[in-house]
UniProtKB/TrEMBL annotation:
Record membrane topology: Multi-pass membrane protein
Protein source organism: Oribacterium parvum ACB1
Name of this protein: DUF421 domain-containing protein
Assigned protein family: Belongs to the UPF0702 family.
Domain of life the protein comes from: Bacteria
Keywords: Cell membrane, Membrane, Transmembrane, Transmembrane helix
Membrane-spanning residues: 6-25, 60-80
Length: 210
């Protein structure tokens, strides 16, 4: 089989352009994965480019159509995640509370696929050597462990994101949904869906509305 370097160059250029399009439209700035689905998208694109550029049986037009399908799928999932909390959880998953008030949830660890050794390793990496000193430890979708130590006043998570109350963040500061709704009413907010972001800091609730 004789390779056409012109075809390879064109296919590489099209792959690069598709990357630029996705980066610019999604507003991510780069393709660094922030969730499992982001990593899968990158793997799929790598498979498309690596498996096609040296295959003379796939024309440039066919390759372009494949790239367009990939772009449409990526942007569609991005749109669904942005506009639907159900699809966001279905596509990206959700954070898992591993430790609450000094008690380790073994079932949550099993669900996340973590052994006791791996949990303690993550804690030690954050300078924690006993679960009794942890008020809350949450495993993010990208595998990062976010820890709130006993005695910390401010949560590591916002209380509201994308119009949805984050219950584990409320629990970490010993507050209830009723308390949060009262705070929202004080700022003339009647509906949770009107709030894009709500942060709690030093006793104050800072809101960003849609």
């Amino acid at each position: 089989m004789i390779l056409s370097y012109t075809n390879i160059a064109i296919k590489l250029a099209l792959g690069l352009i598709s990357l630029i399009i996705v980066i610019n439209i999604t507003g991510k700035g780069n393709l660094a994965p922030s969730s499992a689905i982001d990593a899968v998208q990158n793997y799929v694109l790598g498979g498309i480019i690596g498996g096609v550029i040296y295959n003379n049986n796939i024309s440039i037009l066919q390759y372009l159509v494949i790239l367009m399908i990939w772009i449409c799928l990526v942007l569609s999932m991005r749109w669904l995640k942005t506009n639907s909390s159900f699809f966001k959880v279905a596509i990206d998953g959700k954070p898992v509370v591993l430790i609450s008030r000094g008690k380790l949830d073994t079932e949550a660890c099993r669900t996340a696929g973590l052994t006791a050794h791996e949990v303690m390793f993550k804690l030690r990496s954050n300078g924690i050597y006993s679960i009794k000193t942890v008020k809350q430890a949450v495993l993010e979708q990208n595998g990062q462990l976010i820890i709130v130590k006993a005695g910390e006043e401010n949560p590591r998570f916002p209380l509201i994101t994308d119009g949805t109350i984050q219950l584990q963040a409320l629990d970490s500061i010993d507050k209830t949904e009723e308390w949060l709704m009262e705070k929202l009413k004080e700022q003339d907010v009647e509906n949770i869906s009107d709030v894009f972001l709500a942060e709690y800091e030093n006793g104050n609730l800072n809101l960003v509305k849609y």
